[in-house]
Amino acid sequence: MSLLEVRDLKVSFDTSDGLVQAVRGVSFTVERGKTLGIVGESGSGKSVSTQTLLGLTAGALIDGEALFEGQDLLAMTDEQLRRVRGKEIAMIFQDPLSSLHPLYKVGKQIAEMIRQHEPDVNKAQARKRAIELLGMVGIPEPGQRVDDYPHQFSGGMRQRAMIAMSLALNPKLIVADEPTTALDATVQAQILDLMLRLQREFDTALIMITHDLGVIADLADDVLVMYGGKPVEHADRRSLYYRPHHPYTKGLLESIPGSTGAKTRLKPIGGQPPSLINLPTGCAFHPRCEYVMDRCVTEEPLLAAVGDKDGFPDLGHTSACWLPKEAAGLDAEAENLRQEAVALGRSADSPAATVVDAGEAQ
Amino acid sequence: MSLTDLEAEASVPPASEEPDGRKIEGRSPWQLAWARLRKDKAAMISVVVIVLLIVMALLAPLIAKWVGYAPDFGDRKLGQTVDGLPVGPNGHHVLGTDRFGRDILVRSVYGARVSLLVGLVSTVLAVVLGVIIGASAGFYGGAIDTILARAMDVTLSFPYLLFALALAAGFGASVPLTIFVITFFSFASIGRIVRGQVLQIKEREFIEAARSLGAGSIRTMFIDVIPNLIAPVTVLGSMTIPTAIIFESTLSFLGAGTDPRTPTWGNMLSDATQSYTVAWWTLFVPAAFLLITTLAFNILGDAVRDALDPRSERLFAAQKANRKKKRK
Amino acid sequence: MTQDADVLVEIDDVYKHFPIKQGIIFKREVARVHAVDGVSLQIRRGETVGIVGESGCGKSTLARCITGLHPITGGRIVFDGQDISRMRGKQLKPFRRDVQMIFQDPYGSLNPRRRVGAIIGDPFDIHGIASGADRKKRVQELMELVGLNPEHYNRFPAEFSGGQRQRIGIARALALKPKLIVCDEPVSALDVSIQAQVINLLKDLQEELGLTYVFIAHDLSVVRYVSDRVAVMYLGKIAEYAEGEDLYEKPRHPYTNALLSAASIADPDAAERRERIVLTGDVPSPIRPPSGCRFHPRCPKAQENCIELEPELIVRDGDAAGHETACHYPVDPAESLATEHAAIEQLSTEPTLPSA
């Protein structure tokens, strides 16, 4: 049994401007000790989907199933969910300041959390554990720092304290939502290093949500790319970076300056992310896609296997795109396949013809 | 946090949107706020109530003529019992009379004139004064800020009732004096909030952008700072009106506001303390008018704030909606 | 330094300190933030100078000193042969036409209560260049130039997405045909797929209009992509300054090495191959910067010498001309820092404000 299995999760919000479809059907599994990376831009639904699992999206309309060790998180009462949160599943946010109470000492907050979930631990023991945890995440002089207030910590130290807190109860799953986005490069390196080490030590599963493809390349086993509230590609790390199939994934990889310093012109994805109230018909990406075909405008593609493994379709690499499954990768051969498919799939007077060449203009 | 994200998402226009003639003229933040306000039923009812009250106040002499009693006319024949007590609501005096036999309906209608006049005029004065002082303090900073901010602190620490009673004793109670007192004690709290807002706006990058373009401080103040104050000031103003109305009634009740003979709600309430044990309507009617008026202004004020600040509205809507749960 | 006709901006030993004041009525200075602490740079016409560094290194403050938004505490800035560092108010107005800024936050840098046409047309108003129909025509030309639909002239900023708003900011900066544009983290608030659009636009405009850029960012790969020369800042000082490729291929300062090794790479194989230099601790407080070399408390190569003696920013042995490093013991390309540890015990790095 997988540690976490999410099936067809849908989340929407009823606002005065209309129904915001934040998540439109996401399924994924997380195995013990593994890392799932979820990549997407703002509005892709990457944060909302995990927040929903932990009951943090008040006022949302929710549908689907999320089995954590066989129990449906979405069917739990608030009380049951509270017991799971922290003890079984911990969360690390982008902004540690908003998750640490400003008026309580850092150590006390960690100790309180331990005592809340483990009532038979006394105050002195909880404090001792808080000091151990702070030391473990690399806070210097934890015995003194335990009595500091959050504002006395630097940004990197606060994020460490948050990690210490999330580890306090030895959870089976940690959900990290952009944990290093607010941090500088050298501090980000420290934190990612720490998370990797701790994960290995405690065999914790990790869901890493980020917009930074670099962070994912460092530590994810599997990667889920989301766009407009839906997953568009799901693959192991190597396949995703070296054999991307979905034009959106390919576009993301091509739009960042490479590490080689080549000054060839960047290839941006044209247009703007979609409105979640007024989603495009068919494939949500079609208005920005350079390979748009006739059927993309009307029919929504489903996730399907795009790779082969020992002669069978590789279910570990799926993509929601009408392009032929062989057209994966960044090389010229794959590009030829894509162009051939487009030549066949696009008629002159179709609605797709007007969206072509989204190029750089909008 | 997810909701603020969502708001940003929701405000992104659809990518495929084509410029059709209707859409090109951008909707201003005010038009958007008005559209939101119109959807709010409670706010619309409040607007209707306020408009009715204003119409009633304007038409007070006509109403008096139609009812047949002047506000100061003590009706000895039909307005008092043989023992000289007030009469309750009846065919001649629809809402009864007070202990001098004066018609409560007519007096209440005239009372609306004073209450609304004092409420609106002192609010406008307080807002203007508050914005000028608060904005100058926040925008120029330094010594100007220190002096103005301390002056506002001093004003706020005055015991306002004692001050009002002393003034009334010295100059005699009157409407202008009431307006002066209310303005004097309201502007400082508005000024403080405006100063805080200006300090925040000053830190925004568009102010820096204006400066880097070479814009002078007067231009920056009027083009970039003040327009961004209008929303918070509108909210502050609409919240100040009901406070000012109650303030006026309180002062009148204590004899430190308007001339005790003037028909105002506060004076009527003050009068009613002599008679409410035998004539409940003398207390009930002006109190009800006061309650309805302040309630309408308060609800409208809340709605204006929500309309101008869609984020809080969204959060509120989210709280109202229940999390849909699956049950097995 | 020599005056060179090719040099557009000469930044000469510039200091910018912010006083920290305490007290309710009588404020007195209790400490100073040493935001920029003796920086010298030359920016040539038509080139892009990138400035990288972590938060608090003073790169944004330096940008605001160059644009004249912050009066400088010491040193001098010469723009196009004119010393602007002592100018005030009206004297600065011609200079303001020549130097423009693009800001980081596409939401904060546009006044939400004004229409886009008015925002982009502001420079024409302020400098009394065009008004009425002429102004509208020019604004629409600018909108077209940056890839916005000129018909959206009457819209409000809230009706545009982040990338489009950044284009509005760029159009406003271009209005007066400036010589220098200072870009302060122009793409870091944008979505990945939009960043490339804006970077390409900036590059196209530079080619078309012969602009000079100062490009500030914390994203090393973006800076590498756009810049001809790159300066690495640490705690208010320049640690290393070199031609872009030279700096990235052969970094000499230990801090540059650490920064480059810490940057995330969107390539799993490369990410596994590289060795990370994980620095200890955090950036010290700019209120009381460390003595000697400011990097010494975190430096894996630090020696006694580094605590006392401040290294000069000069060309080191074996480096190309123009590759300046402020380090006593510059890193050899063959040397691997990742295996070493800080030699000197790190003292407290936390900012402590003196209590009142």
Automatic annotation (TrEMBL), chain A:
Subcellular localization, as worded in the UniProt entry: Cell membrane
The uppermost taxa in this organism's lineage are: Bacteria, Bacillati, Actinomycetota, Actinomycetes, Streptosporangiales
Q: Name one GO cellular component term.
A: plasma membrane
Annotated keywords: ATP-binding, Cell membrane, Membrane, Nucleotide-binding, Transport
* Family according to the record: Belongs to the ABC transporter superfamily.
Q: Does the keyword Chaperone apply?
A: no
- Name this polypeptide is given: Dipeptide/oligopeptide/nickel ABC transporter ATP-binding protein
GO function terms (MF aspect): ATP binding; ATP hydrolysis activity
Q: What InterPro entries does the entry give?
A: AAA+_ATPase, ABC_Ni/Peptide_Import, ABC_transporter-like_ATP-bd, ABC_transporter-like_CS, Oligopep_ABC_C, P-loop_NTPase
Q: Which biological process terms from the Gene Ontology are attached to this UniProt entry?
A: peptide transport
- Protein's membrane topology: Peripheral membrane protein
UniProtKB/TrEMBL annotation, chain B:
A Pfam family that the UniProt record links to this protein: BPD_transp_1
Q: Which InterPro entries match?
A: BP-dependent_transpt_permease (IPR050366), MetI-like (IPR000515), MetI-like_sf (IPR035906), OppC_N (IPR025966)
What GO cellular component is one of the record's annotations?
plasma membrane
Chain segments carrying region Disordered? 1-24
Organism classification, top ranks? Bacteria, Bacillati, Actinomycetota, Actinomycetes, Streptosporangiales
- Subcellular location as annotated: Cell membrane
Q: Is Ribosomal protein among the key words of this record?
A: no
Q: Does the keyword Transmembrane helix apply?
A: yes
Q: Which GO terms describe its biological process?
A: transmembrane transport
| Protein name in the entry | Peptide ABC transporter permease
Q: Which segments constitute the ABC transmembrane type-1 domain?
A: 112-301
The signal peptide stretch is: none
Give the originating organism.
Actinoallomurus iriomotensis
Question: Gene3D superfamilies under this entry?
Answer: MetI-like
For this UniProt record, the keywords arranged alphabetically read as follows:
Cell membrane, Membrane, Transmembrane, Transmembrane helix, Transport
Topology relative to the lipid bilayer, per the entry, is: Multi-pass membrane protein
**Ranges that cross the membrane:** 42-67, 114-140, 160-187, 229-247, 278-301
Family statement:
Belongs to the binding-protein-dependent transport system permease family.
From TrEMBL, chain C:
List GO molecular-function terms, semicolon-separated. ATP binding; ATP hydrolysis activity
Q: Which residues form the ABC transporter domain?
A: 9-260
The reply to whether Transport figures as a keyword in the UniProt entry is yes
Task: Tell me one GO biological process term.
Answer: peptide transport
User: PROSITE patterns under this entry?
Assistant: ABC_TRANSPORTER_1, ABC_TRANSPORTER_2
Supply the alphabetized keyword list. Answer: ATP-binding, Nucleotide-binding, Transport
Q: Name one Pfam family in it.
A: ABC_tran
InterPro entries the UniProt entry points to:
AAA+_ATPase, ABC_transp_ATP-bind, ABC_transporter-like_ATP-bd, ABC_transporter-like_CS, Oligopep_ABC_C, P-loop_NTPase
Keyword DNA damage recorded: no
* Family affiliation: Belongs to the ABC transporter superfamily.
Q: What is this protein called?
A: ABC transporter ATP-binding protein
UniProt organism field: Actinoallomurus iriomotensis
